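input
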Amino acid sequence: MGRRKKGNPVHGWVVIDKPVGVTSTQAVAIVKHVFEAQKAGHAGTLDPMATGVLAVALGEATKTVPYAMDAEKTYRFTASWGEARDSDDAEGKVIATSDKRPTRAEIEAILPAFTGALSQTPPVYSAVKVEGERAYDLAREGETVVLEPRLVLVRQVRLLDMPDPDHAEFEMHCGKGTYVRAWVRDLAMALGTYGHVSALRRSRIGAFRAEDATPLETLKGFMHSPAAFEHLRPLSTALDGIPALAVTGPDAVRLRSGNPILIRPAQFARITEGTSGDDLQGLTVFCSTGEGEPVALVTLEAGELRPFRVFNFGTG
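output
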């Protein structure tokens, strides 16, 4: 007989507004404690100095974390000119200085070169793994960390304001794996100066938005209270944009057992509407019961829906 897991079988997403000075790991632990949940994770780390949207998955929602992490993100941030920091943000040590301050015209002229598909080397103080170790752990131990550049997507950047010659405020829409700190570092170098991020706020991850987020302190006030569940969102929230299909009771049983089901013509037409023929094989579909209870994530293969991620809502 298996050991009973500690906590309650709570399933869903909690979107918090993370304050400055709290790590993402600490924030997840607080949310898990508020709900007395058995299992928790998050979709994308925010540095301690950063604020904004941290999407926390509880229970079976942790199986949908990769979809939230793959979603586009929106950031608002401040670049400080004239200083390079070893962490590329205000928490690091100054390693170089410059008297050069870019003008609005210079910044706006160079932004197109920093939009689109970019080759970007992550900051040394980052969560990127090097031979199984986090880069920031190695850097803090004094080891020399060499990270390989990788391709990232910056969909759009806007220069919002220049409150003074030392600072510029931006808004960025970007894809998975983009480091704002690295972007500012590289932009400053291209402008003939040094720079780092002095303020950073994430306002969106896919369907999770800052205007719908709950301040972490507010959530802590609902510790072990039924009122906390008013802030729990459905597991499917992270699957925004994935075709959804309601399945019958017998089909739900088969899928939950890991078995494929045949797809009917009406179902096929419903989930493939708006897609081209090349997109159909391997198409991911979210299946739920007629009552809306999640069943499985499946792929469309050879006329069948084949489950690869099954949702189980047992008592643990």
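quick obs: The longest helix spans residues 24-35.
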